[in-house]
Amino acid sequence: MKKLFVGSLPFSVKEDALRDLFSQAGTVESAVIIMDKMTGRSKGFGFVEMSSEEEAQKAVEMFNGSDMEGRNIIVSEARPQEDRPRTSFGGGNRGGYNNGGGYRN
User: Which pTM value belongs to this model?
Assistant: First the structure.
């Protein structure tokens, strides 16, 4: 199986539509749109798993830069998660003035 990154998706696109589109290139093992945990809305990207390297390559050639509901989608080979830089939230500066977090005389 080969995982593909699909970016610049219209926020209205559902997983079924993504699966249907990519099935034109071969067997789709899974199609997932990443959702924002706070709002429950699409983040505008997702992942599609194709059953073979050949089908994945065909999907990239067919759909990278293609129009989907007025947006040119990006399709590329997904990078392994450990290759992406980590972002840390929290820690460090806690806010407020001079890390005090409140008013001081």
Answer: 0.77
The amino acid sitting at 12 is: S
The SS3 of residue 59 is: helix
In a domain, 87, yes or no: no
C-alpha–C-alpha distance, residues 70 and 11, integer Å: 11
Compute and round to an integer the Cα radius of gyration of the chain: 19
Question: In which domain, by residue range, is 61 found?
Answer: 2-79
**Model confidence pLDDT, tens digit, residues 18-56:** 999 999 999 999 999 999 999 999 999 999 999 999 999
Q: What is the pLDDT of residues 68-78, one digit of tens each?
A: 999 999 999 99
Q: Give residues with Cβ within 8 angstroms of 97, minimum separation 6.
A: 103, 104
